[in-house]
Specification:
rod-shaped, alpha+beta
């Protein structure tokens, strides 16, 4: 049927669409693992029983990589493995009897190789060399101080040391090259050392540069070579301006500025806000969301609510903006710091409750003074009487009661009745008394 044919033909397409839809969330959720670059610094020495390869496994920032396996391969002998120590050092000894018959006399030469397969944090690396039978093995060491410089900073110092076993090799030529520049030549002193000064502005190169040192060997010792990384960065500067929009309790701080180098503004740079409280001593804290990218002229702007900046605790914070380079050409930098007041948690402030309570107490005291009349002690008339007559004021005395004069005499009549018969009692005598001020007076 035509319907079935269409279904079978479109089945692979539907399956691919469903697979993409189902695996898209999973793919976006897989984290990206970034591994550090590594390097091996090693050399081979002759021993009474054979040869020994000694070296160190380091990251590109000169930090040792410990507790990992390094594999060593020597021509004519099976591969050997060694585990690095806490300082990244490893050593493998190979007896002459273990070498192939054609290589027992180390003639004309043997190729050795040290390898590290990498792990979750460090990437793979390998190094190789030649062990000659007619000449004694030698080693070369290269040290850079500092390993990161800017175009306007002091020159970096490269010290090259040539060794043969436990001894030094003096008065031999050493060649040094930075990146793809010209090769510099120097001679070692009696201690086997030679120093080179590398001026960043004269290199005409920027970024991560490979510095290689070598010496070709002579009739006594075999050649050796060593490499290191030198970072030549552009110095940057960062300006900062802060303005508050709205009130302190519900407003926000507006941060703006410019990122530049010796050529002008730096576009596409990432800047972030950091702050720390003055009344505490924690490490600097990054504010979530306070990150911005510079525009084509190096300008940036972002805003942060005052409540988030203070983390809902009143006080003063010291805020700075930092530049986080990601191009490998610019140096990180920090702006000048500024002190910013921050509010407490939102809502009615506690001091407002205290003010209302004190006002209510004052009203109650005033009402009590009015009720008792004690407030009249402080009236202008009372104060004038106090200062003029010297008499204390005891409050306002009530006004005297005025009696209304009698217009006509009051007549009072009495009637005596017998309680048992209910008849009037003739001839009875009635006594009338008047009460005045609590005293009884006869009528």
């Amino acid at each position: 049927m035509p319907y079935d044919g269409v279904v079978f033909k479109s089945a692979p397409v539907l399956f691919c669409v469903a697979l993409v839809v189902l695996t898209a969330p999973l793919a976006s959720a897989i984290p990206l693992q970034v591994r550090a670059r590594t390097q091996i610094v090693a050399h081979v020495d002759e021993t009474p029983d054979g040869v020994a390869l000694t070296g160190r496994l380091l990251r590109d920032d000169e930090e040792p990589v410990g507790d990992v396996v390094v594999r060593v391969r020597l021509e004519g002998a099976p591969a050997r493995e060694a585990k690095t120590g806490a300082d990244g050092e490893f050593s493998i000894a190979i007896a002459t009897a273990a070498l192939a018959p054609r290589s027992k006399d180390l003639d004309p030469s043997l190729v050795w190789r040290a390898e590290f397969d990498g792990d979750a944090n460090c990437g793979p690396v390998s190094i190789s060399g030649v062990l000659e039978g007619a000449r004694s093995p030698s080693s070369i060491r290269l040290e850079l101080t500092p390993r990161t410089v800017t175009l306007d900073s002091d020159p970096a110092k490269a010290v090259v040391s040539v060794r043969a076993g436990k001894g030094t090799v003096g008065s031999v030529p050493v060649f040094l090259r930075v990146g793809d520049g010209a090769e510099l030549v120097g001679a070692t002193d009696a201690d086997g050392d030679v120093a080179f000064l590398l001026h960043p502005g004269a290199l005409n190169q920027q970024g991560r540069l490979e510095v290689s040192a070598r010496w070709p060997g002579d009739h006594r010792f075999s050649p050796a070579q060593a490499t290191r990384d030198l970072r030549v960065l552009q110095s940057t500067r960062l300006t900062l301006r802060v303005a508050r929009e709205g009130s302190l309790e519900s407003g926000r701080y507006r941060f703006s500025g410019r990122l530049g180098d010796h050529r002008g503004g730096v576009p596409g740079g990432t800047v972030a806000l950091r702050h720390e409280r003055e009344d505490q001593a924690p490490p600097r804290v990054d504010v979530p969301g306070a990150v911005a990218l510079t525009d084509a002229r190096g300008h940036f702007v972002f805003a942060v609510p005052t409540q988030e900046l203070g983390q809902r605790e009143p006080g003063v914070v010291e805020a700075t903006v930092v530049y986080l380079p990601g191009d490998g050409l610019h140096a990180p930098t920090t702006s000048a710091s500024t002190r910013l007041p921050v509010p407490g948690p939102p809502g009615v402030p506690a001091r407002l409750y205290v003010a209302v309570a004190m006002l209510a107490m004052a009203i109650l005291v005033l009402l009590e003074l009015l009720r008792s009349g004690a407030i009249w002690r402080w009236s202008p008339r009372a104060l004038w009487r106090r200062f003029s007559t010297g008499q204390p004021v005891r409050g306002r005395s009530p006004a005297p009661e005025k009696r209304r004069p009698l217009r006509r005499p009051d007549w009072i009549s009495a009637r005596v009745i017998d309680a048992r018969t209910g008849l009037d009692v003739p001839g009875a005598v009635a006594t009338l008394t008047r009460l005045s001020d609590g005293h009884e007076e006869p009528a």
